[in-house]
Amino acid sequence: MYHPVSLSENIFWLGANDRKTTLFENLWPIENGVAYHSYLILGEKTALVDAIELSKAPDLIRKIKTLLQGKPLNYLIINHMEPDHGGAIEEIVKHFPDVKLIGNRMTFSLVKSFFDISENCQLIQNEETLDLGKFQLKFYLTPWVHWPETMMTYETHTKTLFSSDSFGSYGTLDGGIFDDEVNFDFYENEMLRYYANIVAKYSNYVKNAIDSLQNVKIATIAPAHGIIWRENIEKVVKLYYKWATNQTENGAVIVFGSMYGNTEKMADIIGRRLSENGIKNIRIYDSSKTHLSYILRDIWKYKALILGSCAYNGGLFPAMLQLMETLEHNETPQRITATFGSSGWNKAGVKVLNEFLTRMKWNAVTESAETKGSPDKNAIEKCLTIADKIAEELKK
Ligand code: FEO
To answer: Using an 8 Å Cβ cutoff, are 114 and 81 in contact?
Structure first.
């Protein structure tokens, strides 16, 4: 037995909280956990939207059987094949051998390669519909939000959009399941971190997906992670559109790599001067201490990014190297930027940072602040100039 949660009559939330996994995708810290959502629609025909993560399959199957009360499961809609959403597909097929899998061409290529399943697959095209009787499903192909097969499913009777990764967040559902039942601030923060870590690289596709749904009337957004939206639809769509179109907020992130504290001293000088210039949102991160996940979140949020590195074996400090590679890989749009750093006998760290700016086609606001050892008078002046120029740009 269990305590069912419904979105509307005969549409049920079958989500699962994961408080055990420490790294999402074996990469991103989830100290607040994560939730995987599946939904069951009971019309004359029945459909399950997404099959969640494998470890949660036994409970999912028990819930489905309870709700079906002996009816067959007719369809499994595969919005996204990444194993946090499609991990339990094989288990669903084992328990409901007549279930028809619904997906697009890329979905079935992945279903074959992950599970060696090619039977009972019903191929759908963009905007094709599936009749469940009382409920009608319409499919929107939204490739690269976040894998090439990703799609969304819209139920026309209740105006419910099953949006997959889009509008989802890290964080378990701790009692509240709908947006009107929770304090949104926590989820906004975790939603942005999920976006910056997982989806940001595909921002153009996110924008296209939102554009393609512009004329669709939505009463509920049921994502595959995080809270379900039924009160603040406009707010969450605007928020997502803002992130997808690089509309950043006034503020600066300073990230540095520092072995013995000299580059860190420069970061603090820049941070202090930014504050003296009236900039209120300033985040200073030691790239060795704070996981990339949180730094990426704030880089996606704020307009300015100031990068510092000591020299390390004739190159960049390793933790900074990882950050630079990720920003480049994600095709991060231009930030108001400058570089700084300390070295022992060469200027390798700052040199590599500046090569990064050139590759990214980002223009620095002024020349780099560089020093040997502890920041000297000239380096301090240059740090102050960096902060003044950044503040000037932020105030424009
Ligand atoms: Fe939630 Fe793309 O996985």
So the answer is: yes
